[in-house]
Sequence to fold (327 residues):
Amino acid sequence: MFNALIVEKDDEGKSSAAVQEISEDRLPEGNVTVAVEYSTVNYKDGLCIGPGGGLVRNYPHVPGIDFAGTVETSDDDRYAPGDKVVLTGWRVGEMHWGGYAQKARVSADWLVPLPSGMTTRQAMAVGTAGFTAMLAVQALEDHGIKDGPVLVTGAAGGVGSVATAILAAKGHQVAGVTGRPETADYLKSLGATQIVAREEINETTKRPLETETWGGCVDAVGGAMLARVLGQMQYGASVAAVGLAGGAGLPATVIPFLLRGVNLLGIDSVMQPFAARERAWADIATTLPMDTLEAMIQPATLSDLPGLGSDILKGQVKGRVVVDVNA
Ligand code: NDP
Fold:
């Protein structure tokens, strides 16, 4: 028997989440069973825990789009009992039972070995948000980061915090956009050199092009903010679009693409092949200072999750919530 956060839907379509003790025979199919140690709270988890159910297709469901732990049993040559592993993406926690449980059963194809030099807790302090932040930074690097500050939107959130720390560790000037001025000291401790108030970038303008300012951008917000940022990019600079915390619409013109050669790079962390996941995790393990990562952690337990799921949807979570599923 083990503990899991189970989300159920009643006859009226209303879902509720509670920690339950369940037996191993209820785990879904898969060739590797993992004793989960840590999971995290991401924006998608908020959707899956919340009353609307969001991305969940079948109930009862165990959310948690990422986890790190130790292999218990394996029918796959790549993993043996005792191996430390990390999982992000592949619709785990959405279509397949996820990491908000003391055990998970998954396909070996979805796992990566724990990067050397990191603990399972540190790997989850990175988690899906941090892994995505690294994919975004690597996409910017692949297209060339220009001189001048790199903008990070939604900076105090999960993706934004890790992107800020990675870019600073790689030697870039980082400008963090936040709607929470009280997080300025926190963002500076992660390496931000400039804090930009959310209202400053959210203000609408009729000008499709403004002063060339940003040498690159990791955008977790989308919507009107992304549209405005496009017109502020330096010639030939790139924006890695990661999220839509501020809206899915894009009220932009084509002018920044035509007259400034701006690149808009879409980042999807879910379906990344093994080689790309390995590359990103290796870069994280060697680049991200572990003491900076520790400063982002907000510890939590399985029973804290319903409240935290609702907080993240309201944009109220700072940094990375790391869930100790055995606490
Ligand atoms: P968080 O909630 O931790 O961070 C989002 C941040 O965006 C908030 O902290 C807030 O930052 C800012 N924000 C929230 N609402 C608004 C708003 N209305 N207008 C402007 N800014 C806002 O979420 P994550 O960092 O985990 O995820 C961010 C986005 O990235 C989500 O949309 C998520 O779904 C997506 N994502 C995409 C992935 C992919 O593979 N493409 C993987 C992981 C996440 P502040 O208070 O500093 O302003």
